[in-house]
Every structure is written in C-alpha cells, then in structure tokens.
Amino acid sequence: MSLPTSARVYRRTEDGKDIELSTEDLPKELTPTQVLIRIHAVSLNFRDVAMLNDRYPVPADHRGIPCSDAGATVVAVGSSVKDFVAGDHVSPTFRWTTEDGVMRALGGDFDGVLRDYAVFESDALVKNPEYLTPEEASLIPCAGVTAWTSLAQDDWKKADKVKTALMEGTGGVSLFALLICLAKNITPIITSSSDDKLAGLQKLADADQKVLAINYRKTPDWAEEALKLTNGQGVDALVNSVGASSMDQNFKALKKFGTISLVGFLGGTPEKMPDVTMQILTKSAHVQGIAVGTKEDHQDLCKLLGEKKVKLSPIIDKVFDFEKSSEAFKYLYSGAHVGKVVIKI
Ligand SMILES: NC(=O)c1ccc[n+]([C@@H]2O[C@H](COP(=O)([O-])OP(=O)(O)OC[C@H]3O[C@@H](n4cnc5c(N)ncnc54)[C@H](OP(=O)(O)O)[C@@H]3O)[C@@H](O)[C@H]2O)c1
C-alpha cells in the first residue's frame, strides 16, 4: 500500500491571532517506533482559542499546529511497533515528557492534531474504545481526561467515594465531567449563565437521575444554592473552570474534606490572588492543580467509558468542516456552545 506523501495542516498565523491551512510533506519512511495516523475528527478546547486571543497563561509555539484532541485510525506502523496495527482506533495523548523529563503539551509547545495525517511515536498513542465514533473519541484526550482527573483525583478508585460534584459553566470539561458523574452515580450540580443552556442538560441523564442546575448570573451567591441542594452539606468535588474569582464560592460550596480541582482560568488571572489558607484549613480541603492527566489516566478513562458504554455524542454541540476550522474557533470563543465543538476532517 502506498502511503500519503503530504498532509493538510493548520498552523497558527504569523501574527498569532488566527489559523491557516497549508500542505506539508510527510516523512518518506517511518522510524521503527513511529506510527502514521489518519485524523478524522478534532475537538476544540478553550486553550486552543485562548492562545489566539492572548489569554493563554503558558508559552505556546509560534506558528505551531493547534489542538490536542483527535479521533484517528492507524495507517502504518514502524518496524518495531507491537502495540498497534493498521486500522486501530487511536488518539494521541495530551502530555508528552521529553527524554530530559520536561512535560510538553500537545497543540501548545509541540505540534498538535489539526491536520489530516500525522506521525507520532507509538508510546504517545492510546487505543480508543471501539464503540465510539472518531468525533466522540476526539472529546477524550484533554477535555475528557481533565474531567476524569478532576473527579478521580490522584487515584481513580477515589472517584467511587465522590457522591456529589459541582461543575462551573456548560463548556467541554464541565459537560464531560457531567457524563462521568452520571456514569458513576455521582449527583451532579452544574452552573451556567443561561437558563436555556441548563434546560437541555436533564436529557443527558437516565429517568431516575437528576441534573441539578444553578444560574450563576441570576444567583451570584450560587454556593448558597449548592448548599441548599445538598442539605447543607456541600459537594465532595468541585471542578473549577473559572479560576481565582470563584474561589470564595468554591470553599463555601465545598463539603468538609472535599476536593477542589483547579482546572481553568475563564474568569481571568488577577494580579492579586485570593488568600485561601484559612479556608483550606477549616474545610480540611484538598486543593489540586490539574495538568490534564497522564497517559495512564487517559487509559483509565477509556476503560471506564468502554465498560459503561457512555454515549459521548449528546455533548457535541456543533460539527464544522475542516475548511471551516477558523469559524469553529470563533464559535467556541463566542461561548454560545454547550459542551464540545468538533471539526470533521
Ligand atoms: N488545567 C487543565 O489541565 C485544563 C484542561 C482543560 C481545560 N482547562 C481550562 O478549563 C477552562 C474550561 O475549558 P473548556 O475547554 O471546558 O472551556 P469552554 O468549553 O470554552 O467553556 C466555556 C464555558 O464556560 C462558562 N464560562 C465562561 N466564562 C465564565 C465565567 N467567568 N464564570 C463562569 N462560567 C464561565 C460558559 O458557560 P455558561 O454560558 O454555561 O456559563 C462558557 O460557555 C478553560 O480555562 C481551559 O483553559 C484546563
């Protein structure tokens, strides 16, 4: 079988404010440990658009290939690759640790997945559950794994002890976390700026499950409402996508010994950070910073999804054609979406 000789690739533009499509050569031969993949779908994360809008707090490659989340199939493998064969359903995992131990992030400080063909080292790939379409599988590597590590903390067995969880906003990480909650019988509370967005969420649950919802615009003291919804107890896990500006509300809504996972920065990064020392102490809180997750976290999540056959398509808000990728980025940045925005290649 003859292999493709070139790939259609998006890169960030010279001014760093948009993305542009071009054609690039693929290597003529694979090294023994490399795998050539055909990427069928890519899902967007806030970081992908934050990089174009001067809102990403860590350095990203100038002119780099954006995006981290793909659903792909294996086209060809190098001579020593044993774990994959042509046709396998795979995704590159988000985190890559270099030989000198530095953690790098796909689509940030090394080339990402917004392209039709790509070559990766075999140990950067994870097999996807067979029941998922490439569009669904594309939700997993960043959004899914972040939701998973936020709920599972540093040990997936701990997710079994979480009985209530609160997610901020109806973006990709929050809605993936909502699906994990429903699969693991964790009672979810989700906040949003919009009653319309909240109204559709109950459809994601089975008839005997309840999705609890709070409009944070109408109810600025949403933590008070979360306490009412949990009989005054508070929630076991809180997935913080907003950042520093919601920390006070987070601690108020948290159960004693609960966990706050610091995931996002949607509310901005103020120069003066809140002092939460006493709140950590008095709540005996576990506060963890999230860097998506390891390859093992990624595999654990795939195992859970495969066992429970969790349907991911209900949290796909909109699918764009590859040629309309720039529009997809603008749509995500508008915040009009609920859940995930996907690009089909
Ligand atoms: N640390 C990590 O490893 C990691 C991994 C993934 C993502 N992240 C970060 O987590 C955050 C969420 O990512 P995402 O991809 O899920 O984002 P997203 O899909 O773009 O979510 C955006 C949604 O969040 C809500 N929102 C926006 N600003 C808000 C604010 N000030 N207060 C409350 N809610 C707000 C809005 O929902 P409503 O209209 O419903 O309110 C908005 O539609 C981002 O900051 C992202 O960079 C971090």
Automatic annotation (TrEMBL):
It comes from the Eukaryota. InterPro entries: ADH-like_C, ADH-like_N, ER, GroES-like_sf, NAD(P)-bd_dom_sf, Zinc_ADH-like. Residues 16-343 form the Enoyl reductase (ER) domain. Gene3D superfamilies: Medium-chain alcohol dehydrogenases, catalytic domain, NAD(P)-binding Rossmann-like Domain. GO terms for molecular function: oxidoreductase activity. SMART domains: PKS_ER. This is Alcohol dehydrogenase.
